[in-house]
Amino acid sequence: MAKIERFDGAAAWRSLSIEERDDIGALTLELFCAWFASKHVEEQPLFECVTPTERAALVATNILLPRLQVAVVDALPRHLLQADDGTPRIPSQMGPVCDDCGCSDRDGCFPPCAWVRPDLCTACAAKKEVA
């Protein structure tokens, strides 16, 4: 199995021009504002009426997310998003991820596994020992 490569958001941010940073930063904050305004809608019972602000915020999220995606894809060099073999990188903020099965602290194996090292879970380590 190939090692899963990480995306370094801080390095990527530093590689952007001031204009790209301004555009992506503003879109990110606008998207966060829409998320913040609509967040408690998800916690309400299904079919309960939402306020005009919540309704508009939900629509804003659907508008802003694609805009942010386009701005980031247009701004970032492909090599920052993909490894040399073309495999997409994963966010560095993920924490440990198993190179063999892709499990993480948020999405563990079943039955539950632990970490032999930051890139190998106990379930996959046991499979390698058997093989």
Q: How many separate helices?
A: 5
Q: Name the overall outline.
A: flat
Mean pLDDT: 90
Cα-atom radius of gyration: 20 Å
- Taking the alpha carbons of the first and last residues, their distance comes to 14 Å
Helix content: 40-55%
Major beta-sheet overview = 2 strands, parallel
User: What sequence of helices (H) and strands (E) makes up the elements?
Assistant: EHHHHEEEH
Query: What is the structural class?
Result: mainly alpha
Can you list the strand order of the major beta sheet? 1-2
* Total strands: 4
Instruction: Note the beta-strand portion.
Output: 5-15%
Unreliably modeled segments: none
Explain this structure.
The protein contains five helices and four strands. It has 131 residues and is mainly alpha-helical. It has a domain at 95-131. The strands form two sheets. A two-stranded parallel ribbon has the order 1-2. β3 (115-117) and β4 (120-121) form a beta hairpin. The radius of gyration is 20 Å and the shape is flat. The protein starts with 5 loop residues before the first strand and ends with a helix.
